[in-house]
Design the sequence.
């Protein structure tokens, strides 16, 4: 299935869960939804690189989440991701081909695996319901401050919130998750998608532009583990092959022990239409 169809299905099934449990306000509580779904929750020590686990024994499911990562937003996202494996059609069959078993997740938009990706989409849609989110986003301002405001409101991680903002905003925004060297995930708002060729997956596995402030994080391992911020400007064409040369404000923030950088590129000016000459 294509990434777009996967996202669409994730959105649809998250909406069904909202309807089933009468979710109508922020913050959405994934722990509560798990309990009401009859799923057990268990705090566990989990190997590094694993965000959480889903275990199946007969008809019983248990979500194990990692308490070593002291980040409430990430723990909530982990549980929402596992709920995706529970609620999305095809996931239980794919993850538990022999019936019982244990699935180890890599939540947080950096996995290559399509099932993990779709569970991430579900997690974001579950915690940030589209209607409520769009309403709040329209009053949130722009750039990284808007994302931080929304993350506070939804009690979600900066990364998941940033990707959600890019999905719904009418502003020209690109959100990039990287390790300071290589891009792991990217999302762009509609105004950017309309002026960039090859809309899908175009930044994945490409290198961070060497002169960008995001690249500074990749050059210093110690910086990468901090929550420091860097600001600058870079051209959209430095990030995306074939994109027009539009100056973008670049905000980069270290995500701490997670070892990732979140970059938000946005233009204070509207981007030119496709038909315009550059
Ligand atoms: Zn998973």
Sequence:
């Amino acid at each position: 299935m294509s990434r777009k169809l996967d996202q669409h299905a994730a959105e649809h099934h998250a909406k069904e869960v909202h309807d089933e449990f009468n979710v109508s306000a922020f913050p959405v509580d994934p722990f509560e939804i798990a309990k009401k779904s009859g799923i057990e929750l268990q705090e566990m020590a989990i190997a590094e690189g694993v965000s959480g686990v889903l275990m199946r024994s007969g008809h019983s499911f248990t979500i194990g989440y990692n308490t070593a990562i002291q980040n409430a937003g990430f723990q909530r996202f982990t549980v929402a991701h596992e709920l995706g494996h529970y609620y999305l059609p095809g996931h239980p069959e794919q993850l538990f081909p022999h019936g019982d078993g244990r699935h180890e997740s890599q939540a947080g938009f950096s996995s290559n695996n399509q099932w993990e990706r779709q569970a991430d989409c579900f997690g974001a849609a579950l915690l940030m319901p589209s209607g409520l989110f769009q309403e709040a986003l329209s009053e949130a301002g722009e750039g990284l401050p808007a994302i931080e405001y929304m993350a506070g409101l939804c009690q979600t991680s900066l990364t998941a919130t940033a990707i959600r903002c890019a999905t719904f905003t009418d502003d020209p925004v690109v959100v990039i998750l990287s390790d300071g060297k290589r891009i792991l995930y990217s999302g762009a708002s509609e105004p950017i998608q309309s002026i960039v060729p090859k809309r899908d997956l175009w930044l994945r596995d490409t290198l961070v532009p060497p002169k960008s402030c995001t690249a500074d994080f990749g050059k210093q391992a110690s910086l990468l583990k901090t929550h420091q911020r860097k600001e600058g400007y870079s051209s959209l064409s430095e990030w995306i092959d074939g994109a027009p040369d539009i100056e973008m404000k670049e905000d980069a923030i270290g995500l701490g022990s997670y070892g990732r950088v979140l970059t938000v590129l946005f233009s204070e000016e509207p981007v030119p239409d496709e038909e315009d000459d550059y």
Remarks:
- The chain has a mean pLDDT of 90.
- Residues 81, 85, 105, 116, 119 surround zinc ion (CB under 6 Å).
- The CA atoms of residues 203 and 240 lie 7 Å apart.
- The chain has twelve helices and nine strands.
